[in-house]
Amino acid sequence: MPITILGIESSCDDTAAAIVRDGIMMSNLITNQDIHRAYGGVVPELASRAHQANIVPVINQALEEAGIGLEEVDAIAFTKGPGLLGSLLVGVSFAKGLSVSRNIPLIEVNHLQAHVLAHFIREKKGREKIMPAFPFLCLLVSGGHTQLVVVNDYLDMEVIGITTDDAAGEAFDKCAKVMGLPYPGGPMIDRMAALGDKNRFRFSKPSMAGLDFSFSGLKTNFLYFLRKKLSEDPDFIKENSNDLAASLQHTIVSILTDKIIEAVAITGIERVALAGGVSANSGLRSRLKAEAVHRGWQLFIPDIAYTTDNAAMIAITGFFKYIRNDFTGLDVVPTARYGLQS
Ligand code: KG4
Ligand code: ZN
Fold first, then answer.
1. Measured distance CA(226)–CA(221) in Å, rounded
2. Distance between CA 199 and CA 242 in Å, rounded?
């Protein structure tokens, strides 16, 4: 009998549902909440209300696209955390309600673990995907998290480096906001950077010992630099936007790459993977491809669809927990701050 998992993701501003059967993605639906654009960031109260409106249609569509009925679902995997409490609450409560009404077991999923396990999602057709062997190093870079992880097994991960302030995605988004770009700024910086000169401006890189990261100094440096330039020329951003984006992206990519190189040296692990929203960044992807060739690493870069938040990653994590009989009781509660090792 195949194992069919319904995945539900509602940790931030995307309501997503997916069906994974025996590790193969059958459907992967997402509803983005455009409502936050006008506010320059995610407004938690609006996010939870939008999740309430979106969750039923998105789950129905995921089932429909997969061509299966609820009676075929063996378990409901949902994001327990980390994330916005109100947003998580919608997903957790809905999963519980569905579990009780249809008598389907529940599986709680750590959103960060799910980003890493997105590497193990297989497609229905197409070439056979090469998956990372254990142990491998994973740079998990998203809007809320930046960490270096040693992945010993599907459900055994050890954090060896973490940001002490902002996340890499936050650095992209906050600097983009200073440039007057809409939220989330990361993808836009990426597009503009492709047209700019990455060596035009130099921004500060932190001098963090060990494997930890820091991005708040760069954000402040970027802000003060722009303030100074704007006082001399009010059109400075408009006239230099692509070069600014390219130079900023180059700095963030260098900070991340330097730490991966250090982590490989320290652990001796030469299998390197990327995960999380910022792993969609084309500058980071191409830089790491070049480093991998140069240094002889085996590199694993997720498909774009599995970089930013999605429910297929929740469902695949649910699949690995299902085969280990790792189920969750109805007393489960969402957890806003929820680390990889908690
Ligand atoms: O993983 P994710 O969807 O959500 C969190 O769990 O945080 O990551 C979202 C983050 C945002 O900060 C967004 O700006 C960033 O990923 N991001 C990018 C790109 N696409 C998404 N940053 C740089 N370049 C991109 N192409
Ligand atoms: Zn995420």
1. 9
2. 12
Which uninterrupted H or E stretch holds 288? helix 282-295
Is 143 close to ligand 1, i.e. is its CB under 6 Å away?
A: yes
The Å distance, Cα 341 to ligand 2 centre, comes to: 16
- Cα separation, 26 vs 65, whole angstroms: 7
State which of 146, 172, 215 you would mutate to test the pocket of ligand 1, scoring each by most atoms of that ligand within 8 A of its C-beta: 172
Cα 54 versus chain centre, distance: 20
pLDDT, tens digit (0-9, with 9 covering 90-100), for 284-317: 999 999 999 999 999 999 999 999 999 999 999 9
Strands ordered across the beta sheet of 156-162 = 156-162, 146-153, 136-141, 271-275, 298-300
pLDDT, mean over the chain:
95
pLDDT above 70: residue 68: yes
pLDDT of residue 342: 62
Strands 146-153 and 136-141: antiparallel
Q: Is the CB of 169 under 6 A from ligand 1?
A: yes
Q: Mean pLDDT across the stretch 196-224?
A: 96
The CA distances from residue 187 to 137, 150, 151, 181, 190, in Å, are 25, 27, 27, 10, 5
Which pLDDT value is given to residue 39?
Answer: 79
Q: Would you mind telling me the total number of residues written for the chain in this entry? A: 342
pTM, two decimal places = 0.96
Residues 6+ apart with CB under 8 A from 185: 172, 173, 174, 175, 176, 177, 179
Cβ of 308 closer than 6 Å to ligand 1, yes or no, is: yes
Euclidean distance between CA atoms 143 and 170, whole angstroms: 5
Distance of alpha carbon 82 from alpha carbon 68, whole angstroms: 30
Q: Which two tokens stand for residue 157?
A: 């991960």
Residue with CA at minimum distance from ligand 1 atom 16: 277
- Residue type for position 45: E
Protein residue whose Cα sits closest to atom 10 of ligand 1 = 143
Closest C-alpha to ligand 1, atom 11: 143
